[in-house]
């Protein structure tokens, strides 16, 4: 069976089509990964926010009770400091999680060849 002769133009067009298909598939996968990552980050943020909301809320209830019962100022300062520290800690954790939003993906062709189909 004789070997087909392909012109440089035909090879260029085939390469361009193959590359565009590769890019399309890559972009589809990247978009899917980004969507999954966004959902993951959103869920983690919601979890951290709820956790700290509960912790801070408990301390605020204690603080309000301490003020009503005229507890020692050192105890009140300790509760206030704990609330401040929890708030700062929450902001730090949220920042760490939010930085996970960025997804880096790239592709580069590493090989090329000719596929011969024999029927």
Task: Report what the structure shows.
With 119 residues, this protein is mainly alpha-helical. It has one domain. The protein is 73% helix and 0% strand. Helix 1 packs antiparallel against helix 2. The longest helix has 61 residues, at 8-68. The protein starts with 7 loop residues before the first helix and ends in a 21-residue tail after the last helix. The relative contact order is 0.12.
Return the average pLDDT rounded to an integer: 89
> What percent strand?
under 5%
Total beta strand runs: 0
Please give the count of helices.
Answer: 2
Radius of gyration: 30 Å
- Number of spatially distinct domains: 1
Category from helices, strands and their pairing: mainly alpha
Shape: rod-shaped
Helical content, roughly? over 70%
Kindly report how far apart the N and C termini lie.
Answer: 12 Å
Low-confidence stretches: none
Q: Output the helix-strand order.
A: HH
Tell me about the largest β-sheet: none
Write the layout of secondary structure elements.
Layout: H1 8-68, H2 73-98
Task: Sum up the structure in keywords.
single chain; mainly alpha; 119 residues; 2 helices; rod-shaped
Question: Brief overview, please?
Answer:
The protein has 119 residues and is mostly helical. Helices cover 73% and strands 0% of the residues.
